[in-house]
Amino acid sequence: MRGFSLAVAAVTLAGCAAVQNAGMGPAVSAEDVGRLSQDETAPIDAAQHELQVAQQARNQAMLRLQDEQGRLAMARPGVQAADAQVEAARIGIENARKTGDPNPIQQARRQLDLAIAFRKERQARVDYERHAVDLRQAQVTAADRTIALARARVERSKLVALEEAHNPAAGKYNAGLFAAAVDRDRAAADDAARDVTKAHGDAASSFETWQALRRAYAEEQGLAPVRGGAPASPQPAPGALPRSPQQPGPQQNPRQPPSQPSFPAGPQSEGAPPAPGSP
């Protein structure tokens, strides 16, 4: 009976030789990889390099996400400041009405119109920054999926290396499981890439809305139209999101327009968010 149990255990272990790599897919044991000579590990080395590149890209994506989260945090107080200016303008109308003079009333109403236009522009900036954060988060998720795919390819490359070396250890593994893991992780990476594309479209639309309200605010003041364009220099890193204007302080007069933002120069459309998947 004991011998039978040991035999069953041996068969089971042989069938499960493709051990689970932290629950992410089948993996070749380090012991079997150690059977290969340095010349025989070329497929593994190439796959591991791709994994390192994917991990570095993920780190960069996380830094960009943190940067955008900071910009969103800086944009939010602008809405509160604009709310205060709207309220102050409404109080100004009430005070002007008490004078009975139509000129102060007209001026106070003008201030209220400006304050409302300014408030709309500040809210549009916050909305854009939210979409920018969503885009960066989607890029981080896509980077995670790319890492998972790269890891699956690393494990498959180990089996390929064993097979190409005609190493008997290759017979312990089910090649179909490794191929299925790669296919599964590739599908997940493709889904994440589609999410990035959608988030990019949302960010681009939100950015255009913000810029339209900035122009409307400038026109409300009788100023030259606010232009969103790419400066000739300095050239920022490729794929950078449009830079937001400085956040006005609570004491800023609503007649003063937000400072001009700086946009990336390069092959992308003027003032647009980066292409999906770009750094």
Architecture overview:
Helix 3 runs antiparallel to helix 4 and helix 4 runs antiparallel to helix 5. The chain has a single domain, classed as Substrate Binding Domain Of Dnak, Chain:A, Domain 2, CATH 1.20.1270. The chain contains 5 helices and 2 strands; from the N terminus they run αββαααα. The N terminus and C terminus are likely disordered. The protein starts with a helix and ends in a 59-residue tail after the last helix. With 279 residues, it is mainly alpha-helical. The protein has a two-stranded antiparallel ribbon. The radius of gyration is 29 Å and the shape is rod-shaped.
Strand content: under 5%
Our count of domains comes out at: 1
Sheet of most strands: 2 strands, antiparallel
Give the terminus-to-terminus CA distance.
Answer: 62 Å
Q: What general outline do the C-alpha atoms trace? A: rod-shaped
CATH architecture: Up-down Bundle
CATH class category name: Mainly Alpha
CATH topology: Substrate Binding Domain Of Dnak, Chain:A, Domain 2
Unreliably modeled segments: 1-23, 228-240, 244-272, 274-279
List the helices and strands and how they pair.
Blueprint: H1 2-15, E1 19-20, E2 26-27, H2 30-33, H3 42-99, H4 102-164, H5 175-220
Antiparallel strand pairs: 1-2
Helix pairs in contact: 3-4, 4-5
Features:
disordered C terminus, 66% helix, 5 helices, single chain, 279 residues, Substrate Binding Domain Of Dnak, Chain:A, Domain 2, mainly alpha, two-stranded antiparallel ribbon, disordered N terminus
